[in-house]
Amino acid sequence: MYPAIRMLWQLWKHRNDPALPVTGTHVSRHYCLPWDIDLWMELNNGRTLTLYDLGRIPLARRAGLIRVLRARKWGLTMAGASVRYRRRVRPFEAVEMRSRMVSWDERFVYIEQSMWKADGGCANHIVYRGAVTGKSGIVPPAEVLEAMGRANAPPPMPEWIAAWIAADAVRPWPPMQDATEGETPQE
Q1: pTM for the complete prediction?
Q2: What are the C-alpha distances in Å from 107 to residues 1, 110, 118, 155?
Q3: How far apart are CA 84 and CA 127, in angstroms?
Q4: How far apart are CA 98 and CA 124, in angstroms?
Q5: In the chain, what are the domains?
Q6: Rounded CA gap, 54 and 99, in Å?
Q7: Pairing, β 122-134 against β 109-116
Q8: Band of pLDDT at residue 116, cut at 50, 70 and 90
Q9: Residue 1: pLDDT band by 50, 70, 90 thresholds?
Q10: Cβ partners under 8 Å of residue 44, min gap 6
């Protein structure tokens, strides 16, 4: 189930935070609750992706994007993600989440988020390829930034994100076209 109450709490909690520059970092605090865990008594990897919404949406609001989305009747979508999980997050453990837009190209924005444990260690890190969508499809980031009153040039794309973009460009789509037809799974 989507954590709607937690999202409302984050939006309310950060309602008076100062506006952020388009590449500013939003910092928030979250807890791993019992319904966030998996069989191994740690934050579920899929739930981690859902919890990242709790940082990304307030970031978008603080940067002024939500106001523009509503005015233009645009939406948001994710077009890809790359995640690293490094340290377990246990039930009732608090994490600090850091969220920021790193750069953009002709079609997509690249957003990085991380969860940090109380001892200073990074538990996990994600980079998203996201897009603003309108009736005609993807809205170019330059148009979105102009609507936000921020016709900035994109910051240099970090090498590691550029490498992910390049690797993803050669990934086959649709996937698994080379799978053997008629193969039955082993029981």
Answers
A1: 0.90
A2: 30, 10, 37, 15
A3: 9
A4: 11
A5: 24-169 (3.10.129.10)
A6: 10
A7: antiparallel
A8: very high
A9: confident
A10: 36, 37, 38
